[in-house]
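Anyone else keep sequences and structure tokens together like this?

Example one:
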Amino acid sequence: MLKAKTIVITGAGTGIGEACAERLAKEGHNLVLIGRRREPLERVAARTGGLVLDGDAASSACWSRFIDEIRARFGGIDALLACAGGLGQGAITDTSDEAWQAAMRGNLDSAFHSARACLPLLIERRGSIVLLGSIASLAAGPEVCGYTTAKHALLGLNRSLARDYGPVGVRVNCVCPGWVRTPMADEEMQPLMAHFSEDLDAAYARVTADVPLRRPASADEIASVCRFLISDEASIITGACIVADGGSSIVDVPTLVYDRLGGA
């Protein structure tokens, strides 16, 4: 029987955060579910149990309250999964000051504040952190300036934390998924569905047509990667960027034309 850990999950109400909660609840861990909207968190908690804390993960004031409640309920923290994110569409000339700040706050500040608040308790238990990046941490898609910039910066945060806190036993890693079937990604399929008059499955097939595995990930698959990184099996891994994208980032884009010759 594995020893139950106390695991904090931000962005726990939907998508990958929700899948992480469900995956870890099956192993009997104590969960802290954090998000801005209480209703989705309560819905997840009804299936997984755990402490629901609604508030902004990018707010130091919220984290002061969160940490007090976590310490009172569980005594400490063994792992942080920083899954909160989103926002940041638009090329730079279409990005207002407010939109830029929202992209940084949602994708970078949330991870920074989460890690800074949890680290004292993580140090006590020689715990670990997983930051949720993206293949946008490695390459740029069209007209997603804020999101791409914030996700690239997340890798810098990952490496900085891993270097500074490895000596006291805290491991920090980043998971970089490609397309994952989540409510957020479903919304991103809408323009394709409208333009090509196709359904959601066809839109996902279209965006993964040049991905070696020819499909998006499920949220459960990404949750399994996160679960591995906070487990004892990953005890030597820190500062890593684990790419879970079906192979899309290994594709040599200028050679894609040759796939068409072979009908692949």
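And example two:
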Amino acid sequence: MPVHVYLVFNGNCREAVEFYTDAFQTEAPQMMTFGESPQNPEFPLQEDAKELIMHARMNVCGSEIMFSDNFPGTPYTVGNNITLAIIMDKQEEITAAFEKLKQGGRVGMNLQETFWSKWYGTVTDQFGVHWQLSLLS
């Protein structure tokens, strides 16, 4: 499976996606907002955050690039806004990689079922690289 670059923006993801669509003359991707996703009562969204982009995906020169606005209320730092997304087809492979990546690193989200993946988690490794690991649906 390929490694996908995931770019995170600070509230201007829609503008960035439209810019890259024009720059690379590619088909405009569908965009899902945080407001369109299933809501978690433990983390209620503020009204102004509902139009922020949760996920978009674009093909640029044969490579998939994914985009999102920063999750509302979490810190945003330029330079830390790029993650590598790994999509695997075996849950045990994801778990093994996640366990190794978290050694000396920091877990952002423990491996768990989400509405978009049966097994998903995020981790920043000991070198400061941000990873998203997801089970192919």
